[in-house]
Amino acid sequence: MGSYQSARQQTRVPITHVTPELLAKYVSPVDCLTAHLMLECSEVLAGVKPANLVSLVNRTRPCGRNLYHLWQDHQQQIAYRLGKLEFIVLKTKPNALLLLCFNRKQLEQQLSHAGIRTLLHKAGYKPQACLDELFDLLTQRIIEHDCFPHEIGLFIGYPPKDVAAFMGLVKLPFTCQALWKIYGNPAHSLRLAEDYRCCRQRMGAILATGNRQMLEIKDPEHPFFRQNNDIDFHLLH
After folding, report:
1. Would you write out the chain's pLDDT as a tens digit for each of its 237 residues?
2. CA 134 – CA 111 distance, rounded (Å)
3. 210: Cβ–Cβ under 8 A, 6 or more apart, which residues?
4. Which of 22, 63, 67, 218 is most buried by a 10 A CB count?
5. Which pTM value belongs to this model?
6. What DSSP line would sit under 42-95, residue for residue?
């Protein structure tokens, strides 16, 4: 019981987000957008998360760039640079667009799990739907209801027990808040949230060097993919 009580006292796990200072290190508009997406999708690039949501707001940042417009102009170049990832636009508004960034193989594997398929079926998805059919209904729901359907957590790697409890499909006690609401035994969920945070932190440190060679994410020798969690900073300059 003590572990549950201590978990309840935990607040959100801090996560590194893109700062104007980080993006200002990259002179090229394409480099700027690449750096932004590499950080926002770092957990997916690392293979510890099947997908991430990325919002690109239609406003001019302090560096003078507008990521919303940069995406419109350079999405093909981004697709080439971040070859392991795919992007679909879940929703477009005049003031922002919402991207789902994902690794197709990993997401298909995630959503093929019998338990997750059962939860999706209860949420109104066809039992045998392929990934693109799942995307179609997810996108439709986001557009029609102007909000995130609760099952989106299953797409972006949140633990199924936490998503199911949040949706009211199972009864588990609320335990604590990390990047999402955690229910029942928090141990696995907190470890996962920490894995996500570490990926973001490591990518942030790499991009903060301003070394545009670090934007070549296809290189298997990229420091981000090294097994050792200690970044070899001498390689980044």
Report:
1. 344 444 444 444 455 566 778 888 888 999 999 999 999 999 999 999 999 999 999 999 887 889 999 999 999 999 888 888 999 999 998 999 999 999 999 999 999 999 999 999 999 999 999 999 999 999 999 988 877 899 999 999 999 999 999 999 999 999 999 889 999 999 999 999 999 999 999 999 999 998 888 888 876 678 888 754 444 433 333
2. 9
3. 25, 26
4. 67
5. 0.85
6. HHHHTTS-SEEEEEEESS--TTS--HHHHHHHHHHHHHHHTTT-EEEEEEEETT
